[in-house]
Amino acid sequence: MRYPLTALLAVAVCAVMAGASSFAAITDWLHDLDERAQERLGFTAGVPVGSTVWRILTRLDDTLLGTVLAGWLRTRAPVEVTRPRRYRTVIAIDGKTLRGARTGGGRQVHLLSALDTTTGIVLAQVTVDAKSNEIPAFAPLLDAVEQVLGTLAGVLFIADALHTQTGHADEVTARRAHLLVQVKANQPTLFKQLKQLPWAQIPVGDRTRDRGHGRRETRTVKAVTVATPGGIAFPHAQQAVRITRTRIVAGKTSRETAYLTASLPAGQALPRDLQTWIRRHWHIENKIHHVRDVTFREDLHQARTGTGPAVIATLRNTAIGWHRTTGATNIARATRHANRRSHDLITAVTSSYPTTQ
After folding, report:
1. Contact assessment for residue 249 and residue 215, using Cβ atoms and an 8 Å cutoff
2. pLDDT tens digits for range 241-274
3. Where is the signal peptide (predicted)?
4. How much of the chain is in helix, strand and coil states, percent to nearest 5?
5. Which residues, 6 or more positions from 85, have their beta carbon under 8 angstroms from its beta carbon?
6. Quick check: is 88 in a domain?
7. Number of domains making up the chain
8. How confident is the model at residue 308 (pLDDT cuts 50, 70, 90)?
9. Beta strands 252-262 and 215-225: pairing type?
10. Which pLDDT tens digit goes with each residue over 149-202?
11. Does residue 351 belong to any structural domain of this protein?
12. DSSP per-residue codes, 18-50
């Protein structure tokens, strides 16, 4: 028997939004629905067995699926009626290894993702070649993000030190976007240049203090304009940034210093902006990767066939993004709520919405 692909995708999205954490759980969720709900999803002549659902989903183009679902989510994200004067789309980039999943050759699956830190929507995700690392996957990820947004002009990408690559800086600038990256010992010349800047003479640009869980933390930001080319050994860099984090836990004080470069000039990126944007990079770890592990038990899922590992991760991204756009802060609670109200969930997922982005 043949089943509509749109129906299979709809049930996969709905099931994961309701907490399904595997392909088998997606099938179980479908089979547990009443006949009316199954018909509303597009199954008018019976429902597929688990092997059919698994076989089709593990053969999908995961990058294309991510593009389609990200675009679909953006049409459902609420429009901000009033945006701050200095509003900018900030996208955090980070990778995650699926510890339980393996490729056909036995290697672990590693995914590189791009998160819109304002909406909570993962705009794109690409699979890192098993014989390589995240660096070659950066440009394809930009391609996927650009396909969703239409243009990258003015967008700020934030990434960790692995992506402090001259090729990345050139690639981002060519697309009229901007890059904010941390600098560590993997770029020794640049790291030394940043560390030797006259920071003692540069005034504090922004300082924040946080308290909680028995910890007090102070984050101090200094930023200085650097002249390129010739200023520092990184193309398109407009500012050098230093962040000092001082933590007091149980009476013990620790201090950590981080250096970054930004391709935005001072007039477009004040120290308080930089402070906010840098902290947003943690959103992809705390609000996406951690939730996939804890709520959806991703690291225990031993997907191995075809594009299955990336497809199920994309469905989890979509579920998290959906619940974020509807105002949920506790994704586990939101999935339980959705599971108890399957007809409401089906209505929300299958109904037509105007484009809002």
Report:
1. yes
2. 999 999 898 888 999 999 999 999 999 999 999 9
3. 1-24
4. 45, 20, 35
5. none
6. yes
7. 1
8. confident
9. unpaired
10. 999 999 999 999 999 999 999 999 999 999 999 999 889 999 999 999 999 999
11. no
12. TT--SHHHHHHHHHHS-HHHHHHTT-SS----H
CATH number of the domain residue 143 falls in: 3.90.350
The token pair that represents 229 in the structure block: 């080319």
- What six digits make up the tokens of 66? 């991510």
Domain that holds residue 194: 60-326
Q: Which two tokens stand for residue 120?
A: 């909570």
Alpha helices in 33-122 (DSSP H): 35-40, 50-57, 62-74
> What is the pTM assigned to this prediction?
0.91
What token pair was written down for 206? 């922004």
- 98 falls in which pLDDT band (50, 70, 90)? confident
Does residue 47 lie in a domain region?
A: no
The answer to whether the CB of 92 falls within 8 A of the CB of 115 is yes
Residue position matching structure tokens 């959906």: 322
80: pLDDT confidence band, cut at 50, 70 and 90? low
What are 166's two structure tokens?
């001259």
Phi, psi of 184 (to 5 degrees): -130, -165
In a domain, residue 346? The reply is no
**Residue holding tokens 């504090």?**
204
- The DSSP element (H or E) to which 125 belongs, if any, is strand 121-127
